[in-house]
């Protein structure tokens, strides 16, 4: 497949933030949004907002509205219309058709329970790789990772190398419930938007080699990646929708604390500035190299 081109680029840099509407915007997501936004703007680039809404069972009512409202009140400005994954279903199917044509994926009849019994570490052992076993029916589709090794340089975490067969096994690209898997959807989405730089949380670092492999097989170009550290509480628990995540307030103090988690040097008195002045100061002084590799600790309040 060829790259899908987007017309009217403002610059060569195209970044994005892609929240899922599965809960309110929490502090960890704010930090990720800030990192992608500031990096794009510091390069004079284009920054877009995509709602990753195809995992319908996990969607929480009104959470998309909350996320968009919070981002807007905090001063984020996206440079194009908001995109939603739910509008790209035909594109995902087109990608699957291509992968099937070249026999890069296969039908799998294994359940999670069966995989856990065979492989305690959860890595798929390739049971259906050479065809469905007797009595099994196709439940989902997996990408064949045999022989695939991926190396890439992460702008924050440094050089990375993955042997996909050993590190993750054959991964799902179309789920048993009929939903297109995240790994496939995000690759197609980033290609459609011609994304050149992806700045996101380190919890997605293990997804990156899978996405690069899909990009290579589909004939897409790969973005430059940078994975920021997790934001954790004093007990080293990740701040997220499933934990007691720090509430996001619509003030400069919250933005300042997020910038500190990203290792950015800003004068303390910027807290007394307005949001426009804060963003200008952050963008003017933005240093991706200052972002720490280790988790950033914040106190819950």
Describe the 3D structure.
The chain has 301 residues and is of the alpha/beta class. It folds into 2 domains: 179 residues, HUPs (Rossmann fold); 94 residues, Rossmann fold (3-Layer(aba) Sandwich). Helices cover 31% and strands 16% of the residues. A 3-stranded parallel beta sheet has the order 1-2-3, covered by helices on one side. Helix 1 links the parallel strand 1 and strand 2. Helix 1 crosses helix 8 and helix 6 crosses helix 7. The protein is elongated, with a radius of gyration of 20 Å.
Task: Write a concise keyword list for the protein shown above.
single chain; 301 residues; alpha/beta; Rossmann fold; 2 domains; 3-stranded parallel beta sheet; 3-stranded antiparallel beta sheet; 31% helix; 16% strand; disordered N terminus
Question: Biggest sheet: strands, sense, closure?
Answer: 3 strands, parallel
The fourth-level CATH homologous superfamily of the largest domain is HUPs
N/C terminus separation: 49 Å
Shape: elongated
Number of strands: 12
């Amino acid at each position: 497949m060829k790259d899908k081109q987007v017309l009217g680029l403002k610059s060569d840099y195209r970044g994005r933030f892609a929240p899922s509407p599965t809960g309110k915007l929490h502090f960890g997501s704010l930090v990720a949004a800030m990192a992608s936004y500031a990096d794009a703007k510091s390069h004079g680039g284009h920054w877009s907002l995509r709602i990753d809404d195809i995992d319908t069972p996990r969607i929480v009512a009104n959470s998309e509205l909350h996320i968009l409202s919070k981002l807007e009140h905090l001063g984020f400005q996206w440079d194009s219309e908001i995109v939603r994954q739910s509008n790209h279903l035909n594109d995902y199917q087109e990608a699957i058709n291509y992968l099937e044509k070249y026999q890069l994926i296969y039908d799998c009849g294994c359940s999670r329970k069966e995989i856990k019994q065979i492989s305690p570490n959860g890595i798929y052992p390739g049971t259906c790789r050479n065809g469905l076993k007797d009595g099994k029916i196709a439940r989902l589709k997996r990408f064949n990772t045999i022989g695939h090794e991926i190396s890439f340089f992460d702008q924050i975490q440094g050089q990375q190398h993955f042997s996909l067969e050993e590190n993750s096994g054959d991964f799902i690209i179309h789920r048993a419930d009929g939903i297109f898997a995240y790994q496939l959807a995000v690759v197609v989405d980033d290609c459609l938007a011609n994304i050149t730089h992806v700045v996101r949380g380190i919890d997605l670092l293990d997804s990156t080699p899978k996405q690069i492999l899909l990009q290579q097989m589909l004939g897409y170009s790969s973005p430059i990646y940078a994975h920021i550290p997790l934001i954790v509480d004093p007990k080293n628990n990740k701040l997220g929708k499933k934990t007691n995540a720090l509430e996001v307030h619509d003030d400069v103090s919250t933005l300042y604390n997020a910038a500190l988690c990203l290792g950015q040097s800003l004068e303390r008195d910027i807290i007394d500035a307005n949001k426009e002045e804060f963003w200008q100061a952050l963008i003017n002084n933005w240093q991706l190299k200052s972002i720490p590799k280790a988790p950033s600790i914040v106190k819950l309040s």
